[in-house]
Amino acid sequence: MVTAVEQHLKPIASFLKVKLKTNAKDGKSPGNGVISTIFKLLEDSKSNLGPSNTGESAEIQQWIEYGLLYLSKTQGSNLNFILCELNGFLSTRTYFVAHRFTIADAFLFYKLHTVLESLATLEKERYLNVCRWFDNLQGDNTLRQNRTLINFSTNYLGRSSCRGPI
């Protein structure tokens, strides 16, 4: 049985090409928290997707926590609010932290995949900055893994119109 913590960590471990260590007694992932485990996976992978300074470290932690708190159970008007908030943030940025792809982007990519996959074309058009960011990332087969390639080809990814429900 996959625990909620493992559900968040398995795609990250697979992407970083490191083994998700489990507790020898019960076979479950260690209970030291998602954020600290992600940072440990980063360290084990020797990846450059981690923070380059303490400011970036805080931002990465903030976005992972945001994903855990707000993107785990999204629906209805709550989903609209969250996507509008993310859309606004990405209106002047390519990535969530600094000016480069970090583990925060990878984590949010995995959290948003099923959300964006479930949206109709007209709904996607309301969150053009999120769609632009997501489309940019999904081009990396290693990141996407076996997830469905989401079609944004009918969306004009040059402007955004985050308004109330359609």
Automatic annotation (TrEMBL):
Domain named Nuclear-export cofactor Arc1-like N-terminal: residues: 57-138
GO terms of biological process kind: positive regulation of DNA damage response, signal transduction by p53 class mediator
A GO CC term attached to the entry: aminoacyl-tRNA synthetase multienzyme complex
Signal peptide range: none
One Pfam entry name: Arc1p_N_like
TM regions (residue ranges): none
Protein name stated in the entry: Nuclear-export cofactor Arc1-like N-terminal domain-containing protein
